[in-house]
Amino acid sequence: MKIDPNSSADLSAQIAQAIRDAIVDGKLIVDERLPSEAEMADQFNVSRPTVREALKRLAAQSLIRTQRGATGGAFVNRLSFPDAYAQQITTSTLLLSMNAVSFDTACEARYALERACAPLSSQRRTADHLATMRAEIHRQQQPGLTDEAFCDSDVAFHRALVDGAQNPVLSYQLAGAVEGMQPLMNMITFTARSRNQIVSLHTAIADALERREAAAVDDTLKELSEYTQSLARDVMAKRAR
Amino acid sequence: MKIDPNSSADLSAQIAQAIRDAIVDGKLIVDERLPSEAEMADQFNVSRPTVREALKRLAAQSLIRTQRGATGGAFVNRLSFPDAYAQQITTSTLLLSMNAVSFDTACEARYALERACAPLSSQRRTADHLATMRAEIHRQQQPGLTDEAFCDSDVAFHRALVDGAQNPVLSYQLAGAVEGMQPLMNMITFTARSRNQIVSLHTAIADALERREAAAVDDTLKELSEYTQSLARDVMAKRAR
DNA sequence: AGACTTTTAAATGTCTGACAAATAGAAAAG
DNA sequence: CTTTTCTATTTGTCAGACATTTAAAAGTCT
Lengths: 241, 241
Prior knowledge:
Two copies of one chain form a homodimer. Chain A is mainly alpha-helical.
């Protein structure tokens, strides 16, 4: 592992990249201990603060963890699904909020991905998944619910639908698509009428899933997608006036 | 923005989180300049190196960029699609390589998501997308091609298919699913026969896409998914002996 | 000998102060 | 008015120090 001291890039960025490459390429394996900060400073011919900045970059991506004390140090971290979820959601949220992505585009992506889960979820969903969905539907019918709480419940409902596919990789990918859209969804004001419409579609989805009818789930999701987009268009139109 | 000096967490991690929250919540907007490192050190009552470690954490997630010089400083970065791609791919790759995710699970997720793009891509693909796919098919038929180069071309082919949907959010999400699987795919040895089979399926997909027949694309993708999984099972079986 | 306490060494976390390098704007020179 | 030079600001890097945490080694008592 070498760095170029004459490069225009920051030394800490170069060091971080070198270590990152080593991890991705499997030269450093999970739970392996990196040399101590002082040793690395020697190796790379830089100071300890520079090495530390590099390590903090890696820690921010959950690639390493550090431990203090006698047998401490920096260790290659096993990237867990929850860690990956969290990063994925932050990235997706910012990507959508900072890049003038239209609601339609985001919505289309979300429902396209979600519909990909429908056949698998129909096959494999457990009673648990179904119970979660029913519970969320019930919550969505509470009268005093704020728009935000309604959206939270909506996310939880769709989460259960996705998790029903019993494929952690799929759940991980979808986490970004579904939760990243929440800030956009929160801009919509849900009237009593639109809530009822959504609840009835959710119920239709849950019913179809209970009967394990993939095609019906897919159709209803499509309907829900179109309804959501029409709601968003109404909000935009009102805001334009 | 406040931090708790008595918390067990690192000061730099706390500071990074405080700034990250401010960005996600929209309290800091794109291209806004953060205070200088010295000023932040004062504000948070910590030293400059500690502030710097916090900033490097944020830089690692592409949340900020820094500039040297008189009017320099740290600026909230607009998270670009390419940046988001890169992060997604690193995360997905590591998630798959470190977590004993079965080839079947990853493959299922990948093709489920890809099939979600098929209808959109059938509608919207341009001549360019089709040309890219044809070119990659041609490349896949070169005799001297290494397994790795074959996989690269495979990724490029599927990339074009996904991009054909003309939905950047979908492309971003799929980047992780498709490219993250590459290391797993690279473990497969592609015999001349299996390459021919894959090429013929790719050709069928391109043909169907040319005719804009979504259902045919979907069917062929399903076939390809099953064939890929059967190849992987053969490799596993051979390795077991 | 065995269990408990103390010491010690190694590592990360943090601070201070300094200098280098880049950069934009102000000041000076032509 | 244009070009050059200077200057102030800010990030990048370094060196050395001390604080804190932690596990293992050494020591002590029963």
